[in-house]
Amino acid sequence: MREFVKLTASFKLDGEIPDIFSLYKQIVNELLDYASFKNISSFKKLKAERYYELREKYPNLPSHYIYTACQMACSIYKSFRKLKRKGKAKGDKPQFKKDVIMLDEKLFSLNLNNLFVSIATPNGRVKLKLIHRKYHERFRDWKVGQAWLIKKDYELFLNVVFSKDIEVEKPIDVIGVDVNENNVTIAKLNGFGKKVTREKVIRTVYFLKRRKIQSKIKVGKTRRKLLVKYSGRERNRILDIYHKAANWIVEEALETGSAITLENLKNIRKKIKYSKKMNGRLHRWSFRKLQLIIEYKAKLNGVPIIYVNARGTSSLCPICGAKLSPNGHRILKCKRCGLIADRDIIGAWNIRLRGLKQIDVASPVPAESLPMKTEGGKETKHHKMSSLLER
Question: If exposure means fewest CB atoms within 10 Å of the residue's CB, which of 29, 163, 369, 371 is most exposed?
């Protein structure tokens, strides 16, 4: 079995390029005005109606800039129309304000051996040096796809999409992964594991810090600079935690030859009736980002990923299927079979069971017997957290 993996790498560019950002922005906005007036969301239709006209209007611009501008305009208009249906759109039509240019394979060529990129401009091709980082080396044998040229504070960056076919081994077992605000818990054949992330605490601290800045400094560059500074620190800290947690999960899967099972948490924010406080917490928690990092790291190492329904994973007994009752802080109890366990372990355990149902594995121990401990030759359904958690 093979998996098609896509990853985006960001390169900082050393050198200068003729200013085509303002021109590209103008073309995209022209296309957005036309798409809004005609209600066109189809790339083929927009290209058929405006491509040749724009080619004549901008004869010195390489033609593929018009082509990618049509792609970008359609993508922006589709998103705007979706937001408008939900009543979240601002204004009557979308506007493109960012210094971003979409490049296809005709507009740039990347050389990772000599560390330069050649970009087509109205004045001919321009070579720019790539600022090399260690993680870029992995992409030397990958296929190069689309790219985005980005200008940030007078600095140039190139975001390139790489793709590769990875051979995925058939798993012999399944690991269940329960992603929470403060930890990541896994359930495997021989026990459980938990990695504390403290994401909730970190995000709350930075949220309060930003709110304090906003209340003390009303307007100006200082306010914006401080907000950007602390937002960047928060993002870097969270990403570091996510990558460490993902590496730990993938290592566990490789050691046991297991597939990784994750919850399908799509639309979780819409399904829960929550207060204003909970609303803020859920929107600060980027659970999907962690899942995507786990997914791409798993695929790079040939580990299969399974998504299962998240309904009831933290509220149903994994032994008998009965509804669990609260029994103290984050502890749940089953009144039917007597199971007592932490809700994170219950969640990871149920996720593993659902993963086992979706994949044909030769697990030497039935999934239902996972948490059982024997005392004097007899099975017991009660278990102590300290003995099962591998911190």
Answer: 369
Cβ-based neighbours of 4, under 8 Å, separated by 6 or more: 163, 164, 165, 166
Distance of CA 37 to the CA centre of its chain: 34
DSSP letters for 331-363: EEE-TTT--EEEHHHHHHHHHHHHHHHHS----
Write the DSSP assignment of 237-297 as a string of letters. Answer: HHHHHHHHHHHHHHHHHHHHTEEEEEEE-TTHHHHS---HHHHHHHHH--HHHHHHHHHHH
Highest-pLDDT range among 189-193, 276-280, 382-386: 189-193
- What tokens does 316 get? 């149903």
Predicted TM-score of the model (pTM): 0.75
Q: Which fold has domain 173-197+241-390?
A: Nucleotidyltransferase; domain 5 (3.30.420)
Question: Can you give the length of the chain in residues?
Answer: 391
Residue pair 389/194 in contact (Cβ under 8 Å)? The answer is yes
Q: What is the pLDDT of residue 88?
A: 85
